[in-house]
Design brief:
Rossmann fold
């Protein structure tokens, strides 16, 4: 897995598939995940001719973990990464936390983003019900006081609740438990403060919002509000899919993604 030094304190590891392809597609992972978790998208994107870049963002995967792991800092990293990789402009695709980083990158550096794809993410996330409040509170308590294993198990059951998804649950547990715990908590705090609702109208590039109809982490109404706030954004709801749509329904996801990217 190649790596690039973005600064004296940040070494970023990344996956690259089809280096000679064009245009580049930047894939941004979710909280506790890593670039390699886009594995089921690598082949379809490469076969369609794209250059695929999937970094481990700061504090996640094999990348180093600076003291500050925020959405804004990660977006700044991605701008520098795209410049260093001579990959500007790029199609930018982000899921969950990666979707917030993608939004911030597109707002701060619109010239770097050809098309923007936001997957199971939000402009502002606040619990919609008592059960949502309890879930996020439990995640915070487990991450802070109990340890990453218990928190990872709870997240995995929420992301992949079906009996035939045991392998997917095991993969996300492994990823989360390997994440630097301080980086994970710092990112969680930043996500709870994240709010681009007042700036969504600034997104002028083509935007696609993809929602898993069964997402219980970022409720579909929250994602609908995100899509409605972006001028001329397209919103696709995928039935039978949850928060981990890139793994639990890759065929449908890849088809929707490739059709959108092919338009520009």
């Amino acid at each position: 897995m190649p790596a690039i030094d973005l600064s004296d304190f940040l070494c970023l590891h990344y996956e690259e598939v089809n280096p000679a392809g064009a245009p580049p597609v930047l894939l941004l992972h979710g909280l506790g995940s890593a670039g390699g978790d886009w594995l089921l998208q690598f082949g379809p994107l490469a076969r369609a001719g794209y250059r695929v870049l999937a970094p481990d963002m700061r504090g996640f995967g094999r990348s180093s973990a600076p003291p500050e792991v925020t959405v804004q800092a990660m977006a700044g990293d991605m701008a520098l990464f795209l410049e260093r990789m001579s990959a500007v402009p790029a199609h930018v695709v982000g899921i969950s936390m990666g979707g917030t980083v993608a939004q911030q990158l597109a707002l701060d550096h619109p010239e770097m983003v050809r098309r923007l794809v936001l997957v199971n993410t939000f402009a502002r996330l606040r619990p919609q019900s008592l059960s949502d409040w309890l879930y996020f509170l439990a995640r915070a308590v487990l991450a802070r006081f109990i340890g990453p294993e218990r928190q990872a198990e709870m997240v995995a059951r929420r992301l992949f609740p079906h009996p035939d998804q045991q392998r997917l649950r095991e993969n996300i547990v492994r990823r989360i438990t390997q994440t630097n715990p301080c980086a994970y908590r710092s990112a969680m705090r930043s996500l709870m403060r994240f709010d681009t609702t007042g700036r969504l109208s600034e997104l002028r590039m083509p935007v696609l919002v993809i929602t898993g109809a069964e997402d219980t982490t970022v409720p579909p109404p929250v994602q609908r509000a995100l899509a409605q706030g972006i001028p001329e954004a397209r919103h696709v709801v995928v039935e039978g899919s949850g928060h981990g749509i890139i793994a639990d329904n890759p065929d449908a996801f890849n088809r929707i993604l490739l059709e959108f990217l092919a338009e520009g």
